[in-house]
Amino acid sequence: MQIMSETETMPPQKQELPGTEQKMHPKPISDDPQYRGSGQLKDKVALITGGDSGIGKAVAILFAKEGAKIAIAYLSEEEDARETKEIIEGYGGEVILLPGNIRSREVCDQIVNDTVEEFGRIDILVNNAGLQYTAKSITEITDEHLEETFAVNILAMFRITRAAIPHMKEGSCIINTTSITAYEGSPELLDYSSTKGAIVAFTRSLAKNLHDKKIRVNGVAPGPIWTPLIPASFDPGKTEKHGSKAPMERPGQPVEVAPSYLFLASKASTYMSGQILHPNGGTVVNG
User: Fold this and answer.
1) Prediction pTM value
2) How far is 27 from 9, CA to CA, in rounded Å?
3) Cβ of 71: how many Cβ atoms within 10 Å?
4) Catalytic site includes residue 74
5) Digits of tens for pLDDT over the chain (287 positions)?
6) Domains by residue range for the chain, with CATH
7) SS3 annotation, 158-222
8) Catalytic residue among 74, 133, 192, 261
9) Rounded-to-integer distance, Cα 193 and Cα 182, Å
């Protein structure tokens, strides 16, 4: 597994949202073929939104290697989803694909119902799907983009969690993907950063709310990671420099972020709830 060296940059490139790994060069690194699981999630059932590519894909593969049965919810990137499914099945894992736009309340309910129908329950919920649009000024943010960003990033997370809770037992866990932008802010991602701040508050509040049910809730706040959302959101010049301002001077790879999710899903983190992990290339956020 070859990770970028410091000061190495990505080639300039541009895609349309939501983006696909198939058009990225180089493609993100989502799997370490040398890693062998040790059964940390044996027979667990994990529902992962945005699990077709990027961070979600790396989490799905790692969880499957550790013995979990995987349900992947995604928008419409069929080629990415099929590739992820093939990788998981290549390791002997079980996986189902659940396409649909989680802006819809009905889709939020359906992906939970389909997971339970296939696997009987949900032990791990990873709320990872996200959307962002760039704007240089708040006056450029349209109502359409504002409402879509909130609908996908936080309203869907709330609805999916609400639907999943009745199917989760004591010892289950929820892991929410927030972002470094919730702590540092981002001048060109005002609405996106706002949703990520909401996710931090949601995570902390839900952890307290579910304490009596003994369901743990934590989050991960990645820094600049090489995913399809980057070339689909930024212009080629900014894409080329993605991650260069991090202390490590490079973007992270999804495979470097996935272990944070595994830690939070495993028995190793049974004394943690309401917390956020920060795989961000060395930036200290004190959050």
Assistant:
1) 0.95
2) 13
3) 27
4) no
5) 656 555 567 888 888 888 898 889 899 999 999 999 999 999 999 999 999 999 999 999 999 999 999 999 999 999 999 999 999 999 999 999 999 999 999 999 999 999 999 999 999 999 999 999 999 999 999 999 999 999 999 999 999 999 999 999 999 999 999 999 999 999 999 999 999 999 999 999 999 999 999 999 999 999 999 998 888 888 888 888 888 899 999 999 999 999 999 999 999 999 999 999 999 999 999 76
6) 41-275 (3.40.50.720)
7) HHHHHHHHHHCCCCCEEEEECCCHHHHCCCCCHHHHHHHHHHHHHHHHHHHHCHHHCCEEEEECC
8) 192
9) 5
Q: Give the number of other CB atoms < 10 A from CB of residue 144.
A: 9
Determine contact, residues 56/255, Cβ cutoff 8 Å: no
Write the secondary structure of the chain as one string of H (helix), E (strand) and C (coil).
CCCCCCCCCCCCCCCCCCCCHHHCCCCCCCCCCCCCCCCCCCCCEEEEECCCCHHHHHHHHHHHHCCCEEEEEECCCHHHHHHHHHHHHHCCCCEEEEECCCCCHHHHHHHHHHHHHHHCCCCEEEECCCCCCCCCCHHHCCHHHHHHHHHHHHHHHHHHHHHHHHHCCCCCEEEEECCCHHHHCCCCCHHHHHHHHHHHHHHHHHHHHCHHHCCEEEEECCCCECCCHHHHHCCHHHHHCCCCCCCCCCCECHHHHHHHHHHHHCHHHCCCCCCEECCCCCCCCCC
